[in-house]
Design brief:
With 119 residues, the protein is mainly beta. 9% of the residues lie in helices and 24% in strands. It has one domain. One zinc ion (ZN) binds next to loops.
């Protein structure tokens, strides 16, 4: 199977969003700074001028979703969103998609994530 290239655009989570992330994570767990992904990398398939998305924090459980940062090219993230998990599972390997529901591009198991070990 051919893997699609991953976007991999990087940015840094601003301090203001670190605080927001901890607040949003509160109902799900006892959050600590160390749990947050602050060096962000876009997890989507290579895309055009659309916004980048990076996973900031996974909530425990299979249906609880995760916290995502969204940003546009050349800017820092200005907002965080709790998005439900993509429900797709690779029919061959049974590997679940690591992205959010209705994400653009291919599912994570169709992307070449070899260079992104934190998946
Ligand atoms: Zn991107
Ligand atoms: Zn998916």
């Amino acid at each position: 199977m051919t893997l699609f290239p991953i976007c991999g655009e990087t940015t840094r989570l601003p301090v203001s969003l670190v605080r927001q992330a901890l607040r949003l994570a509160g109902p799900h767990r006892t959050p600590e700074d160390a749990d947050l992904e602050q060096d962000l990398r876009c997890h989507l398939q290579v895309h055009g001028a659309d916004d980048h998305f990076a996973l900031v924090l996974s909530f425990p459980g299979v249906t609880s979703g995760a916290l995502w940062a969204r940003w546009t090219e050349g800017t820092r993230p200005i907002d965080l969103k709790v998005l439900p998990d993509c429900p797709s599972i690779d029919p061959d390997s049974r590997e679940p998609c690591c992205e959010f529901a209705d994400h653009p591009g291919g599912h994570s198991y169709h992307l070449d994530s070899a260079s992104i070990e934190s998946f």
